[in-house]
Amino acid sequence: MSTAENEKSVQTAQRKGSLLSFRPDIKVLDATLRDGGLCNDFRFTDEFAKALYKANVAAGVDYMEMGYKASKALFDPQKFGKYKFCDEEDLRAVVGENPSPMKLSVMADVGRTDFRKDIGPKKDSVVDMVRVACYVNEIPRAIEMIEYCAKQGYETCANLMAVSKAKEEEICAALDMLGNSPADVIYLVDSYGSLYPEQVAKLTLLYLEYGDKYKKSIGMHAHNNQQLAFGNTIEAASWGASYLDMTMNGIGRGAGNCSSELLLGFLKNPKFHLTPVLRFLTDYMLPLRAQGTVWGYDIPYLLTGRLNMHPSSAIAFLRAERSDYAEFYGELQDRD
Fold first, then answer.
1. What's the longest Cα–Cα distance across the chain?
2. CA-CA distance, 140 to 128, in Å (whole number)?
3. pLDDT band at 22 (very low <50, low <70, confident <90, very high)
4. CA distance 124 to 116
5. Are strands 217-221 and 155-160 parallel, antiparallel or unpaired?
6. 3.20.20.70, 3.90.1640.30, 1.10.357.10, 3.40.109.10: which CATH number matches 3-290?
7. What is d(CA 278, CA 272) in angstroms, rounded to the nearest whole number?
8. From the CB of residue 54, how many other CB atoms can be counted at a distance below 10 Å?
9. How confident is the model at residue 157 (pLDDT cuts 50, 70, 90)?
């Protein structure tokens, strides 16, 4: 689809539902332990994880992401908490046999997961879904992982990262390849928090075109660099995206993600409940901030988001306790 055709499709497409209705196809996924783990090296206590699990179940959340399936040959277990690796015994210590209707997921990054060694058959695991994260140039390797995980019995997702940096023809080629894979869901990921709602609308409709063609669901994972994570998530949902990511109080790498309290407060499906989330925020997220874990919107993240850049420079800026925003903006523009 050309840019002109895509713009025309936005003009003629119909939004799905209204502010007063709910769509039963929408699934919400809590990524607190996974994306939030990037803020504290995944060093959440078992008490925190168990309370989060109970809060998500009580809130009617559809999926809870327990963390990454990272290779211990590449990442030193002494330097990270257990949710970087999601060993089966560690997951069962939190959820038992998971008697709840909520499903569990893990994320596996292309090139950072020894998937044949560390991801066993579904029948031996409490995990229900494996989400494979990759960049556009890594699609063949991602498909290899997706095919493996599907054969092991898992639901599978493809999280196509940093699409704001990709050309439209690259995105279309990637969607076509993923459409022919066993992936159940294909995610639009605003890795740098650089997209605006109009861009999200166009991309969502493009993803949905391939989703309809190949019978795939479409998901949205947003970052909050420009304070648009919630807005972009509900924008994608309004056009038909059905898998929506969120985290408690928006915790996540850099500027963080779409906040659970915002999304669950917005969705009109009566199965979702806000009160358990609010209690968890009081009992666990406020103490986490007080203990020194840092996340959320800040000026340096705005600047990297505006320039469609990875937030690593902003993270380094904040760690250096700098406040010379104008000079930092000039440095970023010189790199761009």
1. 55
2. 23
3. confident
4. 14
5. unpaired
6. 3.20.20.70
7. 13
8. 16
9. very high
